[in-house]
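re: ur question from earlier - yeah i can do the single chain one, its not a big deal. heres the input i used so u can compare w yours
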Amino acid sequence: MARRSKSATTGLAATTAGASGQEYSTVKPPGSRASYVQEVMRSEILSGAMAPGTPILQDAIAERLGVSITPVREALRNLESVGLVVYEPNFGAKVAELSAAEIEELYLLRGTVEGLAARLAATSITDAELEQLRATHRELRQALADGDVQAMAAASRRFHDRIARVGGRSIVARHLGWIWETNPIPIGQSVWSHPDAAQQAVESNAKLLSLLESHDAAAAEQHMIAQVRAAATARLTGDWRPTVP
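and the output i got, formated as tokens:
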């Protein structure tokens, strides 16, 4: 597992405040208590409700979700195995937080995988698959018009996932899914939280769609790589002025 930075976000209340999970006895999900705790915590981490670096108070989580400490510990072990939670000596568990070097490495990996996905898609995409992409991009534009950050992020994820799955491919899509799920982007560090950058990102996806329509594999790959690199630069520098091609 990748080493994480030592800095931690202050505010222990993040493990209890603004939480989406209800007590296990109220929800009565079909799975085990540990599975329920894991899903609640995973959702809160991915949504940004539990920010990177947030200390995880096991007793508070157990009390909030109406379970004992044992399923909380099991859930944390499972979340640690996929990189969403880390343990530090004399500190305990916290939400994983990438260092600047790891963020750079992550986006290099994303650029490589997503660029490959775009290149492969451009060579074999069908009219039906193009229409699905157009529909998803219309959803993205509507979310932008509504100013709905979560809906924009979700629509963009579907757009890129569809590209990775063109032609029924699964290997690239599976690797890309792993990258997304184990390295969630905090909402404040997402392009979708910054209106001008979000507008430019929507237009960049429109350009990518046109390259797929023309079956220009090399250009689609390079455009995707440039798009990912622009997002990395913005996240590392905090400069969200539109730079996406």
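The chain is about 60% helix and 5% strand. not sure if urs matches, ping me
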